[in-house]
Amino acid sequence: MTSRAAGQPVVVYGASGHTGSFVVDELCRRGIVPVASGRDVGKLWARGYTERGIAIVEASIDDRESLRRAFAGAGVVVNCAGPFLDTADAVIGVAIEVGAHYVDVTAEQASVGATFARYDDAARRAGVTVAPAMGFFGGLADLLASAASRDLPAVDSIDIAIFLNSWHPTAGTRRTGERNTARRLVVADGHLVPLADPPPKRKWTFPAPIGDVDVTAVPLSEVPVINRHLRPSNMMTYLNDVSLRDLADPNTPPPVAVDGLGRSAQRFVVDVHVNGGSVRRRAIASGRDIYAITAPLVAQATQQLLHSRSPTGAIAPAELLPADATLDSLARDCLEVQLT
After folding, report:
1. At the top level of CATH, which class does the domain 136-290 belong to?
2. Per-residue pLDDT tens over the stretch 93-115
3. What is the rounded average pLDDT of the residues 68-84?
4. Which residue blocks in the chain are alpha helix, DSSP H?
5. Which fold has domain 10-135+293-326?
6. What is the DSSP annotation of 112-143?
7. Are 309 and 129 in contact, with CB atoms under 8 Å apart?
8. Does 132 have pLDDT greater than 70?
9. How far is 58 from 188, CA to CA, in rounded Å?
10. Is 339 helix (H, G, I), strand (E, B) or coil?
11. Spatial contact of 180 and 247, defined as CB atoms under 8 Å apart
12. How far is CA 227 from the centre of its chain?
C-alpha cells in the first residue's frame, strides 16, 4: 500500500481533448488545479487554461524526455490521450519512472490487457498504482458489478447492457475505432475468449420508460477490468443498436454542448445483472453524457490516490475505489443509481 502527499501536482495528459477538458474542469471544481499537458501546445492554449492559472507543459509520446519534464514531481498522471494502444505504454512507463500513480480512461480491451500484463510488477516495485479504464466504459460498470456482487462467494455470470439515446462521437472516439482492430474478448467458462463472429444479438428490457430494445454484443474495457478481480464464470456486454448505428455513420456530428458544464443532451443507462448461485442482483446507473461522466470518476480516483493509502500494482477501478461509497458520491452529484 502506498500514498502520495496531497501537495504533489496532478498532470492531465491529453488535456486539450474533449474528455481531458472535462477532467481538468472537474479537478478544479474539487480544488485540485492540475498541470495541463499534451502534444499540441496550441490546442492547450486554446482551452484558456493559462487564464485560469493552470500551467501548460508540452510533451510528446515520441519524446520520453519531454514526458519526464512534464511528469516530474507529479503525484498522479491522468492519461486522457487516445488511442491508448498508442499512448499508454509511453505515459505509464514514464509515470512509473518518476514515481507517480497512473490513471487512464481507455475503452480499449487490448490496452487494458497490455497494461495489466506489462506494468503490474513494475508498479509494485515502484510503490505506485496503475489504474486503467477509469471512465464511463470500464470503470462505471466495474463499480456497479462490484456493488451488486458484494458478499457473493462466487459470481456465476455478469451481463451488462448499455443504452445511449444517441452517440455523437468525438474525433478521438473515431480515431480509436479506426486504430482498435483487436478481436474483442468475453468471459466464458472462466476464461477470456474471442467474441463470436457475428456478435450475438438479443432484446434487453431496460427500466421504464425505455423498455425492450435491440442490443448487440460489444464488449469493451469493462470485461478485462471486471474479470481482473471478480472472476465471473461468464460475462457479456451489449450496446443498443441505435447508438451503434450513430457511431458507424460517418456523418454523425460530434457532441454539442447544451449547458454551462459543456455536456451534451445525450442520456445513458448502464444495466448490470449479476448472478451467483441462487442470488440475482441488478445495479442500474443513468445520467447524462458519457464523456462528461468520466470526469468525476477520474477525480474520485485522483483524490483517493492523493489522500489515501492505495494498493500498488496494476489494478481495476473498483479495486482502487470502494464501490458503494463511490456510487453514493456520484449519486449525490451527477448519477442516478439503483441496486436491487
Report:
1. alpha beta
2. 999 999 999 999 999 999 999 99
3. 97
4. 18-29, 41-46, 64-71, 84-98, 109-126, 141-148, 171-179, 222-229, 241-248, 290-307, 317-320, 323-331
5. Rossmann fold (3.40.50)
6. HHHHHHHHHHHHHHHT-EEE---SIIIIIHHH
7. no
8. yes
9. 44
10. strand
11. no
12. 15
Cell of 118: 506489462
How far apart CA 318 and CA 134 sit, in angstroms, is: 9
Alpha-carbon dihedral sign for residues 212, 218, 220, 222: positive
pTM over 0.90: yes
Residue 17 is placed in which grid cell? 481533448
On the 0-12 / 13-18 / 19+ scale of CB atoms within 10 A, 82 is buried
Lookup: cell for 236: 457479456
Q: Is the peptide bond before 198 cis (omega within 30 degrees of 0)?
A: yes
Residue 201 C-alpha cell reads as 444479438
Q: What is the pLDDT of residue 324?
A: 96
Q: What is the DSSP letter of 338?
A: E
Instruction: Say if CB 216 and CB 200 are below 8 A apart.
Output: yes
Using the structure block, give the residue that is written with the C-alpha cell 458489478: 145
Instruction: Measure the CA–CA gap between 174 and 328, rounded to whole angstroms.
Output: 32
Q: How many CB atoms lie within 10 A of CB 201?
A: 11
Q: What is the pLDDT of residue 333?
A: 84
CA nearest neighbour of 142 among 77, 233, 243, 227: 227
Q: Find out whether 6 and 14 touch, Cβ atoms under 8 Å.
A: no
Structure confidence at residue 180 (pLDDT) = 87
Sign of torsion over alpha carbons 135, 297, 142, 121 = positive
137 vs 151: CA distance, rounded Å: 24
Domain boundaries, the chain: 10-135+293-326, 136-290
First-to-last C-alpha distance (Å) of the chain: 33
Query: Where does the pLDDT of residue 6 fall: very low under 50, low under 70, confident under 90, or very high at 90 and above?
Result: low
Query: What mean pLDDT, rounded, does the chain reach?
Result: 96
- For the record, the C-alpha cell of 86 comes out as 498508442
Q: What is the mean pLDDT of residues 226-253?
A: 98
The model's confidence at residue 211, banded by pLDDT at 50, 70 and 90, is very high
Q: Is 302 helix (H, G, I), strand (E, B) or coil?
A: helix
d(CA 95, CA 81): 14
Pairing between β-strand 211-217 and β-strand 201-206 as defined by DSSP bridges: antiparallel
Given a contact cutoff of 8 angstroms between Cβ atoms, the answer to whether 179 and 307 are in contact is no
Which residues on neighbouring strands pair with residue 238, listed in sequence order? 161, 217
